[in-house]
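We both want to read discrete structure tokens more fluently, so let's practise on a single case. Would you write everything just below, so we can both look at the same thing?
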Amino acid sequence: MSVDVASEARYLTFTLNGEAYALDIFHIAEILEYRNLTVVPMAPDFVRGVINLRGRAVPVIDLAIRFAKGSTAIARRTSIIIVHVNGVPGAGEAPGGRGDGQEIGILVDAVSKVETFTPEDLEPPPAFGAGIHADFIGGMAKRDGDFIIVLDVGHLLPAADIAALASAPPDPADDAEGASRPAPVS
């Protein structure tokens, strides 16, 4: 998938290791404050664990690890962006009637704001030089004389990994709303 430049679109911007990124709000289900995660044994390193979100196990990936840029340090503004990924085998109907797919959490340093990008603001992904694998990038958005990396949600986590994590049981210590004791903040 690449950025559709046919019309203006809205994107949620966030920071990760001091760099600006964006996700199309069409894929975003909700934004949560960081909460304790249940570690899933033998999961890839970039999968920090799962959260219980209203009785559903939702895997949470650390984008910094996924992009080979260290790991996200948990701080006061650390957030989990819940996104919907379509076409996950065996995931079934997603809540809210979104069709086949799976919700995953993306751990980020801080959520910034929603931006509207016009077709003139968006460029195709670069062939090199962004510092992350080109498959993760849907495009580049120009803003305030700099670029915001627009991510391709469908390539952040392989479908087979999402389907395997979706079957992980939720943490019984979490209540029905998915709340858990807060983690220490640095």
Q: What stands out?
A: Confidence is low (pLDDT under 50) at residues 88-98, 170-186.
